[in-house]
Amino acid sequence: MATNIVGSEHVYVTRTVDDALLAARVVVRGRGQQPYSLVVPIGGDGTLSACLDSMVNEVLLLDNKLNSSNSSSSSKSNGGSSSSGSNMMKVHEAIDKLPCIGYIPMGTGNGLGYVIGCRMPRRRKKKSNNNNNGEDNAEEDDDSRDDGKKKKKKWSEKLLSKISIKRRKVEHAGRVMKRLKQIGDELQQQQQLSGQTKREGAGGGNHLKYSIVEMPMMEVTHHSPTDDDEEQEQQQQTKGDLCFFAGSGFDSLMLEDFKQVKAWSKSPKRKLPSFIKDMLSSVAGYSVALVTRTLPQTLMHQTHKIHVKVTTTDEDTLWVDHRRDVGSQG
After folding, report:
1. CB of 169 closer than 8 Å to CB of 71
2. Which of 26, 169, 201, 311 is deepest in the core (most CB within 10 A)?
3. What is the pLDDT of residues 126-155, one digit of tens each?
4. How far is 40 from 330, CA to CA, in rounded Å?
5. Per mean pLDDT, which range of 11-15, 119-123, 304-308 is the poorest?
6. Sign of CA dihedral 216, 55, 219, 44
7. How many CB atoms lie within 10 A of CB 306?
8. How far is it between the farthest Cα atoms of the chain?
9. Is 272 in a helix, a strand, or coil?
């Protein structure tokens, strides 16, 4: 679908980290003399964050190479050494160098998509045109209930429903891709006319109506409690991982424990009733894993004890503490 809309030479399928790094390198440097004005990652929150993080790393790498070449040439001309540490590009400056991002959420977790409004429109129900149709619909609703209980769908109906939902998602993604292709073409025209991409909400030659949402990113660095001051200072100078939201990792521990509980219940060595296997493989299995594995390991064995330090230079930042009190950075 994507190759039919934008062309196969502009579609990058990434399955490994090396594929993602190669795609980021091509996107940042561009094909030929014309850089990309719009990049559309397709996936979940992790895919989007990893794509942006890889592109920022590539921008910083190019800037570092440029500064190294300039410093070496200046040192040769001056007959001495020159330091380029003060000229190194900052992370927020590298983010500003990125093209506009169009996002199609199609991953397991699409939290950011819900925040910025990337939602598939719900299918509207057909309204009855006259009273007769309304009576017929009411009769159908009555027939669908059996003694006050909703009639369960057959497995074939569930399968057809899932296929219909997936088909609607694919069709909606195709329409979004075509729309983003039009916006990308307009941004490309603006870039050719002005020499740089305009990050404005509307306008251009075709007067397409669109809006660009600015989303802040956080930089996560990892420190060990045994690191001394010199090692921590070196780690602070190195770039961390960019993401839109981060947690303490407690949910990932519970997910891993849930997988172990699920595997334990489905082991052929254990003959458990089918309803117990189904229960441990559902949402109830998370509760079982939380009570039997995650909490005991965390509270009793101290296997997940972390310290978090949050810093920001943005005066408009809001914080919420454990008491639900809200305050401002300024």
Report:
1. no
2. 26
3. 555 554 444 444 444 444 444 444 456 677
4. 35
5. 119-123
6. positive
7. 9
8. 94
9. coil
The two tokens of residue 42 are 């397709």
pLDDT of 52 reads 92
Q: β-strand 202-203 against 208-209: which pairing, if any?
A: antiparallel
Report the chain's terminal Cα–Cα distance, integer Å. 48
Structure tokens at 41: 């990652």
Higher pLDDT, 231 or 248: 248
Strands 104-105 and 42-43: what pairing?
parallel
- Given the structure tokens 């770039």, which residue do they identify? 239
211 Cβ contact partners less than 8 Å away, ≥ 6 residues apart: 201, 202
Residue 180, judged by CB atoms within 10 A of its CB (0-12, 13-18, 19+), counts as buried
Q: What are phi and psi of 130, to 5 degrees?
A: -145, 180
The answer on pLDDT for 124 being more than 70 is no
* Block residue for tokens 């001056």: 78
